[in-house]
Write a structure and sequence with these properties.
- The protein is of the alpha/beta class and 376 residues long.
- It has 2 domains: 4-217, Alpha-Beta Complex (Spore Coat Polysaccharide Biosynthesis Protein SpsA, Chain A); 221-375, 2-C-methyl-D-erythritol 2,4-cyclodiphosphate synthase (60s Ribosomal Protein L30, Chain: A).
- The protein is built from 12 helices and 19 strands.
- The strands form 5 sheets. Strands 1, 4, 5, 6, 7, 10, 11 and 12 form an 8-stranded mixed sheet that branches. The protein has a 5-stranded mixed sheet with strand order 16-13-19-17-18.
- Strand 14 (237-240) and strand 15 form a beta hairpin.
- Helix 3 packs across helix 5 (163-172), helix 5 (163-172) crosses helix 6 (181-187) and helix 8 packs parallel to helix 10.
- The longest helix has 14 residues, at 259-272.
- The chain is elongated and about 85 Å long.
Length: 376
Amino acid sequence: MPKTAILIVAAGKGERAGAGLPKQYQPLAGQPMLRRTVQAFHGYPVQVVIGPGQEALAAEALKGLSLPAPVTGGARRQDSVRLGLQALAPRAPDFVLIHDAARPLISRRIITAIVSALEGGADSALPMVAAADTLRRRHPDGSWSLVSRDNLWRAQTPQGFTYERILRAHRDHAKKDVTDDVALAEMAGMTVIMVEGEERNLKVTRKEDFALAEALLGQEIRTASGYDVHKFTDGDHIWLCGLKISHSHGLEGHSDADVGLHAITDALLGCLGEGDIGMHFPPTDERWRGAASWKFLDHAASLVRERGGLVCHVDVTLICERPRIGPHREAMKAKIAEILAVEPSRVSVKATTTEGLGFTGRREGIAAQAIATVRL
């Protein structure tokens, strides 16, 4: 089966979008735009090209994704593309799709159509949308004239190519100035097939484009709950919400029995319809004996990220007579936020007692209930 690689060009400065930050690293519905663009190609090998000095920004934007190190681009877009194509050489792809990081709403339909065209024998494939607005040309004297929109089309990305030929075209015509890769392909004598693009595959350029892109995302909000209980046993400490806390007893469990993190993990898995913690980390599996529960929560958070989602908020209530939670509350919030890679303001830790009633009132164990909200 032919191998297809994705090259995402994110080397620009994006100054027209404002905010003092290159637009590809600015948040779009809670996630850096570059991250959303990369996740749109889930299942394909992706190589990102960044601008000089953007290493820290890229590392933060792509944190947790399984990607090779970004390639540093050049002064012009086509220089960046050439360097990115050269970086793909060890993987020897048959085809490559070259895409702008500023088009985060690319659909699976367009990606599939371009790959299908290449697998069908096309040298290159280009998504295009017919011009719909009335077009006018301004002349040097300030006058205007009407331009017929008949047979006028707007080019989009990703633009797909046979890998070896587009790499050769970039090398052979490196001194030419072009606005897209299809122009170089045509210089090299490659045939271009058009596939139908989409209006929603807009290029985010100005500040107002972010609001439009967020509206088009149309993300779904999901909320789910989690609940867990562990009983006390012999010991001198417990793990609670990621913290080791000195106590007169320990908590019994196959892992470290962190009841707070277990409840949050189940809540996140519930948002995804992915069962419960026992399905992912069976208590019969010796690999998880004594395991740190932050690994379970990190796994659930990574599943959210793989779906292109965002953890909006988690709220956990610890139910116990002892230990007192108040002195540890802020540290617990910070630890949970660290594991989830979110701001502490997106985490709530509360505590209550049962006024001496039930197993928690008798100090036989600790319970926790959690609610998580994610945007997918």
